[in-house]
Amino acid sequence: MTVIYFRVHAQLIHVELLHHVSNKVVNVTFIYGSNDGDIRESLWDELRQLTPTVTEWIIMGDFNIVRDMEERLGPNPPSLAEILAFNKCLLDCNLDDLQGYGSDYTWTNKREGEAKIWSKLDRVLTNPNWLIQYPHTQDYNALVSQAWQIPVKGNAMFRLFARLKNVRQKLVDLHKRNFTDIYMRVRTAKKDLKACQKHLQQNPLDPYYLAQEKGISEDYWTLR
Length: 224
What we know:
Blueprint: E1 2-9, E2 12-19, E3 24-32, H1 37-50, E4 57-62, E5 72-73, H2 80-93, E6 96-97, E7 107-108, E8 118-119, E9 122-126, H3 128-133, H4 141-148, H5 156-178, H6 182-202, H7 207-223
């Protein structure tokens, strides 16, 4: 991919990327929201300004606010006004949570007993165009959260860049583990699928090849 546009705000980095294989432009925004609700208002305004300029859009990072009270456990509940402001922004920008797996909470203050707080501060959002173009996208919440919580020091922008670098490394490792030689694996799965289907043309009720076809088909479309 090639970066064709780059925009930096105090609480976000937005990039437009050209995917060379499909020749499509994708929009990716990385968030590091302020823990001050008044300052976060400028983040919501920035997202609203970006909305008319994007097509497929995915947004990820630490928003430093929950979407509802159920996303937080512990004392000192968050401000309802700040929650409503976040949700109003998502409504204005036509954004919603990407399907994720793992724990509902991505941050804890690591205290014990009644002082312990759990919150969902990290999330991935997409617009409808993203889901139409990439319907099988899922939120690797645990992986991103793990990378995001690696301690870093420095000013807010340096910490944001450092956290993005940590996330990138985790994604590179994930790619190496699961997507090495992806094109060869697709070709092999396609070849095996055709062989199964050819056999089933002659023996359509063969239980072994029916099961093989189902398994290979799932693998093939997952790889695609």
